[in-house]
Predict the 3D structure of the following.
Amino acid sequence: MSTIFKKIIDKEIPAKVVYEDDVCLAFRDVNPQAPTHVLVIPKKEMRSLNEVSTQDKELLGHMLLKCGEIARSLGVAESGYRVVINTNNDGGQTVFHLHFHLLAGRPMTWPPG
C-alpha cells in the first residue's frame, strides 16, 4: 500500500510544495509543530533511516543540502532551524517513508519531546 507521501510524490494528493527536483520533494506539513514546518522527502521509497545503505550517501547528502537551501529561501536560516528524522514508533515516526522535518520560526527547546 502506498503511503501518503508516495501519493504526494505521484501528485495524487495535493501539497504546498516549497521545493522539488528529481531526487526529493519538500512541502509544508499539514500539522505544523512550528511556524515553519517543512517535510523533505526522498522520491525513492525508503521506509525509515534504518533502510538506508552506503549506496544512499549521495541522496542523503543532497537532502541535507536542500534543507539548508530551503531554510535560506524561507528566510529562517539566520535565526535558526532544526532538522529532525524520526525513526520507527518509539522515535515518533508516523508515516513510514523516510522524511526530514525542517522546523523554524520559534526557539527550539532541548531535550525535544
Notes: Residues 57-73 form the longest helix (17 residues). The first strand starts at residue 17 and ends at 20. The helical segments are 4-9, 57-73.
